[in-house]
Amino acid sequence: MKSLFFLVIIHSLYGNIQAKKFSVLRISPSTRADVEFLQEIRTKDHDLDFWKGPTEVNREVHLMVDEAQKAYIERTLERHNINHTIMIPDVERVIVEQKKKRAKLNSELRLRDWRDGKINFNLAQYHSFADVINYLNALAVTYPELVSVQPIGTTHEGRQIPLIKVTNKRLQSGNKKAVWVDGGIHAREWVSPSTVLYFIHTLITQYDKDPKIRQYVDSMDWYLVPLLNPDGYEYSRSSTNPEIRLWRKNRSPTKCIQVASGPFTPPQQQCCQGVDLNRNFDWFFGQVGSSTDPCSEIYQGGFAFSEPETRAVRDFLAQHRITTFITLHSYSQILMYPFGHQVRTYSNDLNDLHATATNAANALRSMYGTQYRVGTGADTLYPASGGSEDWAKGKAHVKYSYLFELRPEEQVWDGFLLAENQILPTARETWEAVKVIADQSLRLQDSNTAVRHQQPQKAQPFRNVCEDKDSLCGSWAASGACETWPIMKERCALSCRVCQ
Fold this sequence. Notes:
alpha/beta, single chain, 14 strands, globular, Alpha-Beta Plaits, signal, 3 domains, Aminopeptidase, four-stranded antiparallel beta sheet
């Protein structure tokens, strides 16, 4: 194992220095040992902000560091022959430049979205929480036959979490399918709330123009939450300081822990704020890919559903039968389905989830050529427990549960700082994917289908042939998939020993 001694040096020499400049490193692990070394760094040093964590060989890692950390990390990477370059030399400069562009464009009409002709709201820019609230309320007043708005919870800082329901109120029926869509669970992922706002705009303003939209609104209840983490979002908007603009968690009260600073010095108290909301759901809580350190970017919280934001989701889904659960994140261009807490771990209806996701990714690509990978979070990125899409599938019994990692792709330099001219292309192509998922949801026979699909399923008949049809059968079998995934008996008869 490669030494982590340099991390101790960073903390001891620079732990109390206020950094003024941040850079983002693009790191390219070329061996499995490189990946494991970077994963160890991420686990041991919670002061480092991995925009994209280490997952596999030849998959880029993006790491934001201050000047104090940068020299030591670069030197260590060079010592271990791990290739790296500077992706963003000065993060705050990029943030400032984007802020100046927004200020200039706000006064121009050419980017304003006038298609509905009733409400002046620019979908091609990032908005404040107050702007979002005002827009949702304006929609409710302007389109009362289609729209209602309600709070589903209150945050630590007293902000209400707004939910907008879009449906044809004149066609009330207990058999309507229900779709949940949320964005902004991670504060810094600004394109996510903007994409949800585009969905809302499309469902409402295109109802009288597009027969497909009319079908969606007539036949389904749409529950959309543009900003699930309004406290963190507003905090990320409050400064150009990269540590604030790139804030990930919510704004839960400060928690303190004792940290050992050296063998001959007493422990020091370290206090930090915020919980990673997408580690706080009750799905293998705290087991993998999260942290008990309040200063970590992936701090899981004291217990499952410790946060008002996650409790709001839990309580709402407990009171409403949801067919489809969609949560939007950024970035990496991945469409994920459960389960993400362990590699090669799937639900019984994997084939349906995978086929629907593949068709959705193809529809997304058809608009601008944007490529998405499809798979579970554990298989495409890294294992992490406590995620909302896993909980929705495994505990809330939602039939179709998906997580989108939106633009940009991992090779693009801007990461979380996606320019505003990318908002509408991102939203439009993602809507094409959501339409595919909505169409598949409508094909369910009745409103009870979602629950029935979660019950233990009988294995489908299989041919008694002793052969494996997939090169990964051995690995899947070793992880216990033969017992939990019925179709394994057909695809991996030899490894599962069903014909010996």
